[in-house]
């Protein structure tokens, strides 16, 4: 069984999916191209409109199951690992 999940993309599909895994006590790390999205989620808020998702994200962050989310722009857009 798995206990850690990486979610690439935290929009209307990725964020609810990540949050549901976190609600099942799985450790979830999220990556999104948007720094704003990452900062908002890390603050326990959401950047999309989805009823009641804000409460679930806030709880998942506070309980430590939705880990630090970060913007992966430079990596996802092809930055060389040697630069």
Helix/strand-derived category reads: alpha/beta
Distance between the termini: 37 Å
Just name the CATH architecture.
3-Layer(aba) Sandwich
CATH level-3 fold name: Rossmann fold
Shape type: globular
> Fraction of residues in helices?
25-40%
Q: From the alpha-carbon coordinates, what is the Rg to the nearest angstrom?
A: 13 Å
Major pleated sheet: 3 strands, parallel
Low-confidence stretches: none
Domain count = 1
Tell me the number of helical segments per DSSP (H or I, 4 or more residues long).
4
Summarize the structure in words.
The N and C termini lie far apart (37 Å). The chain has a single domain, classed as Rossmann fold (3-Layer(aba) Sandwich). Strand 1, helix 1 and strand 2 form a beta-alpha-beta unit. Helix 1 (14-23) packs across helix 3 (53-63). It has 83 residues and is α/β, with parallel strands linked by helices. Helices cover 40% and strands 16% of the residues.
What is the topology?
Elements: E1 4-8, H1 14-23, E2 27-32, H2 35-42, H3 53-63, E3 70-71, H4 73-76
Parallel strand pairs: 1-2, 2-3
Please outline what is shown here.
This protein has 83 residues and is an alpha/beta fold.
Give keywords.
globular, 83 residues, 3-stranded parallel sheet, Rossmann fold, single chain, alpha/beta
């Amino acid at each position: 069984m798995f206990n850690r999940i990486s979610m690439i993309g935290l929009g209307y599909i990725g964020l609810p999916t990540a949050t549901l895994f976190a609600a099942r006590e799985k450790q979830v790390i999220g990556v999104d191209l948007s720094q704003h999205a990452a900062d908002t989620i890390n603050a326990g808020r959401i950047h999309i409109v989805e009823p009641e998702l804000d409460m679930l994200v806030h709880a998942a962050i506070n309980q430590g199951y939705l880990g630090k989310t970060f913007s992966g722009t430079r990596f996802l857009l092809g930055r060389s690992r040697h630069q």
